[in-house]
Automatic annotation (TrEMBL):
It is a single-pass membrane protein. The keyword Transmembrane helix applies. Residues 1-113 form the C2 domain. It comes from Aegilops tauschii subsp. strangulata. Keywords: Membrane, Transmembrane, Transmembrane helix. It is found in: Membrane. GO terms for cellular component: membrane. InterPro entries: At1g03370/At5g50170-like, C2_dom, C2_domain_sf, GRAM, PH-like_dom_sf, VASt. The lineage of its organism: Eukaryota, Viridiplantae, Streptophyta, Embryophyta, Tracheophyta. Residues 327-494 form the VASt domain. Transmembrane segments: none annotated. This is C2 domain-containing protein. It comes from the Eukaryota. The keyword Transmembrane applies.
Amino acid sequence: GGDHGVKAKGDGWLLTVALIDGTNLSATKSSGYSDPYVVFTCNGQTKTSSIKFHTLEPQWNEIFEFDAMEDPPSVMEINVYDFDGPFDEVASLGHVEVNFLKYSIPELADIWIPLKGKLAQACQSKLHLRIFLNNSRGTEVVKDYLDRMEKEVGRKIAMRSPHTNLEFQKIFSLPPEEFLINDFTCHLKRKMLTQGRLFLSPRIIGFYTNLFGHKTKFFFLWEDIEEIQLLPATLSSMGSPSLLITLRKGRGMDARHGAKQLDDEGRLKFHLQSFVSFNAAHKTIMALWKARSLTPEEKIQLVEEESETKDLQNEEGGSFLGIEDVKMSEVFSSTIPFDVPVLMGIFEGGPVERRIMEKVGCMDYSVTAWEPVRADVHQRQVHCRLDKKVARRDGEVMSTQQKSPLPDKNGWLVEEVMTLEGIPLGEFFNLHIRYQLEQTSSKQKSCSVQVFIGMAWLKSCKNRKKITQEVASKLSSRLKKIFSQLEKELIPAN
């Protein structure tokens, strides 16, 4: 009754599975043995092995070839059953899911996979498999996929460079066949906002950030998504719409640390907001999700609805560079005639901070309260609109700041990661700023202030050196104004 040995048909992604043998299968019959057989399911196709009677150490040596698939498969479900007659209810001997994104091709070529389930785990049951995944279209895989996606969504999608794809694969430990389609700057909302970058590829949606030396990264499959909600703009979302992604029950648990919540139905929810290019991000996310989850008829309807042509890549242009350590350089150093606690007033969110920041061109200045993130470390969010006199155009700044006491407790370290919106090339980099405020040893009230900046380049562009110098010069001038204004604010009160 098996369909083993049937040759695959079609052109595209070809999956071949060799079922070699099994070991330590659980016994379900009074004889102390079972009659096991294996069912493989991938992309809606099912392949069934032959039945091996009266054994707990079955030897199959059978090959299964799945018909060609347009898209690379994400997962393959494997179920091992005990045969007890054609009309009796089957008993499970174990099950497992192979996630193709978590194994390299050499690993899959010869692998022992532990089975899950009470009986299987108690007996330490395993299957011996050889799994091969390749594309019959050869080197044109990426181009063919992008061409097809463009037809499905009615939009141009640019191909990324080999270097870009390699960096993307390194971040999430992905196999070489997974390629980057697009990436966007955004905030992940959990208990606190986290600035980072959202990465989209044919099979996954992933988030990565390295904020103040603390990395957060996770990904989940498009097929794991049950619903994507568009939430209207609010004050807490910095005046921009946001997305709430709900996964299917029990799915994506490896990404649980990035979720805003686990609801009563066991579903993870991820909240993403403050996109530099919200429309481009939203349309790309919806197109990729629907392309993986819709039936062919639903995809045709999607093409008809999404008929206008637009280049997604141009909305947040450039090519993702990869993750690099930020090199910091000093741009401001001064001794201020005030104690550290007085000087820290500029980071306390009160009227003094607001007046000073508005006088240096930060309009509609707003901050959240400092919240603890770990021992002696607090974090807050800052948002403002840049005065046209400062930026020569409407721009917005979103920052995450962390403060922590210096090791000898005689001052504070304030670190900031700043994202610029509406500024030319602002989406190409994040600005890192480090303020070090330290009490001087002299008897007089005075404080040493040092400020360092660094630029984390997210995308490639020309004239990086020139842009870095210009940003450093502007920031140095702005810092002088801030601390000069602070002295003017504080001197009348002293």
